[in-house]
């Protein structure tokens, strides 16, 4: 079965595989950048940013020695900005501990910030020719359908079984091509809904297809609903300048700049929340003058409504109590700072209203 699986898959891939830039190089740095960009991001979206990122940071030393702010500024639209911080930190570690050469060993790669098993296996198999299977969502879907695996692949036990199965199927001499082929098959043919089974090279050996209902696999347990939070943020004016704060590195959205504020606690009004958060984060007192705008956004684990207020600085010397840094800036200076998505939208409206 393993030989038949691999032969059919690789024959299909040679004719129908996607033409993606990271498949035209064995440069482990370029492949590592690609893999970090592809985490929780579709290939088409990553493609729009990869070339420009590598133009600015063509090699690992350039990336490692660049300021984090500059790296974050090259990550707009990609989302999950922690990946940019992790990639920057990984480059610095490689420069210091690996003589500037991306390591090939799976465990050495996994020890780098932001590099999980799949990214490490991709770099090891594509750049170094090592035999490690990659189990992204596309690959998992194909395996669950071909072998009619019923358990939730997100469970630890079932994921271990899938990894063991993938290892038995992996042709050691063609590990990189096999991994890419399996992911392409899931992306192009064995899609989450309406799979194109008549066009699939594995349909003759696919138990899910034989059952008549391949789209029912994989069987995923319902996710818990994402919690929702109300967040108050302040445009805090002192004359013609307003205050922005930088989130601490390493945490959620680490290194990005934002209009300061935070999550409303039970029993608080939004105005009370904002005054408390500004005192806890920066040690200053403000007057909340009135609402500016609201917007909704969500991340993988939670959703939120951002309530922005126009505010006036009253007294106190700003301190970095709950942030990494702060700046008093004018509206035209905002373009110099990397902001999270919600703050980008807030900044765009602010520019329009100030200029209007």
Write structural notes for this entry.
Strands 1, 2, 3, 4, 5, 6 and 7 form a 7-stranded mixed beta sheet that branches. It contains 14 helices and 7 strands. Strand 1 and strand 2 form a beta hairpin. The model has no long low-confidence stretch (mean pLDDT about 95). The longest helix has 16 residues, at about 80-95. Helix 1 (about 1-15) packs across helix 11 (about 175-190), helix 2 (about 30-40) crosses helix 3 (about 45-55) and helix 2 runs antiparallel to helix 8 (about 115-130). It has about 350 residues and is of the alpha+beta class. The chain has 2 domains: about 1-215, Endonuclease III, domain 1 (Orthogonal Bundle); about 230-355, Alpha-Beta Complex (Nucleoside Triphosphate Pyrophosphohydrolase). The protein has helices spanning about 1-15, 30-40, 45-55, 60-65, 70-75, 80-95, 105-110, 115-130, 135-145, 155-170, 175-190, 205-210, 270-280, 340-355; strands at about 230-240, 240-245, 255-260, 260-265, 285-300, 305-315, 325-330.
């Amino acid at each position: 079965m393993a030989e038949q699986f691999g032969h059919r898959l690789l024959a299909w891939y040679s004719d129908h595989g996607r033409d993606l830039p990271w498949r035209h190089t064995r440069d482990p740095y370029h492949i590592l950048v690609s893999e970090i960009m592809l985490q929780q991001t579709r290939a088409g979206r990553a493609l729009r940013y990869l070339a420009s990122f590598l133009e600015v940071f063509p090699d690992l030393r350039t990336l490692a020695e660049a300021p984090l702010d500059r790296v974050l500024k090259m990550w707009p639209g990609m989302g999950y900005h922690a990946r940019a911080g992790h990639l920057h930190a990984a480059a610095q570690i490689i420069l210091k501990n690996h003589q500037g050469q991306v390591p090939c060993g799976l465990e050495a790669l996994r020890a780098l910030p932001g590099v999980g098993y799949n990214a490490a296996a991709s770099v090891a198999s594509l750049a170094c020719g090592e035999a490690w299977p990659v189990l992204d969502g596309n690959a998992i879907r194909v395996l669950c359908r071909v072998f009619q695996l019923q358990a939730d692949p997100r469970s630890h036990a079932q994921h271990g079984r899938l990894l063991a199965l993938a290892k038995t199927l992996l042709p050691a001499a063609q590990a990189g091509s096999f991994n890419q082929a399996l992911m392409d098959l899931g992306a192009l043919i064995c899609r989450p809904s309406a799979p194109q089974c008549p066009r699939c090279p594995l349909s003759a050996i696919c138990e899910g297809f034989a059952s008549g209902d391949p789209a029912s696999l994989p069987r995923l347990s319902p996710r818990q609903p994402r919690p929702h939070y109300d967040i108050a943020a302040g445009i805090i004016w002192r004359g013609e300048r307003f205050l922005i704060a930088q989130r601490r590195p390493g945490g959620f959205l680490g290194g990005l700049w934002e209009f300061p504020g935070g999550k409303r606690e039970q029993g608080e009004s939004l105005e009370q929340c904002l005054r408390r958060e500004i005192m806890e984060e920066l040690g200053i007192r403000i007057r909340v003058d009135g609402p500016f705008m609201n917007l909704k956004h969500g991340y993988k684990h939670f959703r939120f409504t951002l309530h922005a207020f126009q505010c006036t600085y009253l007294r106190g010397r700003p301190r970095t109590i709950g942030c990494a840094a702060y700046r008093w800036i004018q509206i035209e200076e905002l373009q110099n700072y990397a902001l999270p998505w919600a703050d980008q939208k807030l900044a765009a409206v602010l520019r329009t209203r100030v200029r209007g």
